[in-house]
Amino acid sequence: MSAPRIEVDLSKIRHNTQTVVQALNARSIGVTGVTKAVCGRPAIAQAMLDGGATGLAEARLSNVKRLRKAGLLCPITLIRTPMLSQVDEVVQFCEASYNTEFAVITALAAAAIRHDRVHDIILMVEMGDNREGIMPAELAAIAQRMVDLPGVALKGIGANFACLTGVAPNAAKMEALSALATEVERQCGPFLQTVSGGNSANLPWAFGGHPTGRINDLRLGEAILLGVDPLSGGRIDGMYTDAFTLVAEVIEANNRSVLLPQSSASPALALHLIAPKGEDPTRLILALGHQDTNILGLLMPDGTTFIGATSDQLVIGTTLPSMSVGSVVRFQMTYSALMQAMAAPDIKISMLHDHQMPGGRNADVIRKHLEIV
Q: Which range marks the domain in which residue 262 is found?
């Protein structure tokens, strides 16, 4: 089998989705599966849907088109504010979109009328992360302006956390978002179907026993795909952390001494140059580099140590026996490494266990309560 490649265990993605969906459904919160990190791969999206996700969310229209071309008919929401140059395609391929700019909403309304449909709008509110969003004091006024526009409908509001500045969601912020939803309804009239509290970083709040208020949706990608809490990096109890494995091939193996430079042209990389442990380790060069993934986001297997990397080579030390040219080394990845690797043109994607798990959504492995461990 060719390398480098990513082996995707669809049964584990299905399981992770089932696990978190059941836990959140008990709190009246639905799950929207986010597929942007996997470039809208249809098989992975279908595994999320099979696991109970109510719909999908994407950031790039090209990924949405890939999903539609594969025959997926579920609701798909564009979670990055649409570009003005793409409004016609947005209303054709997406049922809804997250928005912050009234000029874009107006353009979406006109496009929807041209295509004889109504496009749902979710207004994104700035709640502290400083990535994107309407300021809370301006939300009701913008909502009031858009409810009078033909071609679009106000479906809900949403917020984002722990993306740009790392500001974490908490009970107070969720209460504030719930209050904003009620205030928008009071001033504008339409009932808000969706109040999306955020992303995978919201799970500690959701599992913490706090009142959920109006929050009835979370957009989950990292938690489902990697089984971890983005804030702590800790495994979520009951979830698989190895649904994705990056496999790289050894192209050179020798026992020569590793001489690390006294200084590096890249200060950031110099901080990560680590001498291999143990005596006389085997020095391996793998056919994998910065062009393929975020090298510093690779989790080194037991018995191996990171030495350095270039654009197309990864150098590691290993005490594992029987490692030679043609052998493969298997890595787990952080979210940033996964995103880059899934988009890399020279990395093949291999789907494993492309079938429903025994027992489906009611399998005994599902737990009622989750916690970060």
A: 244-333
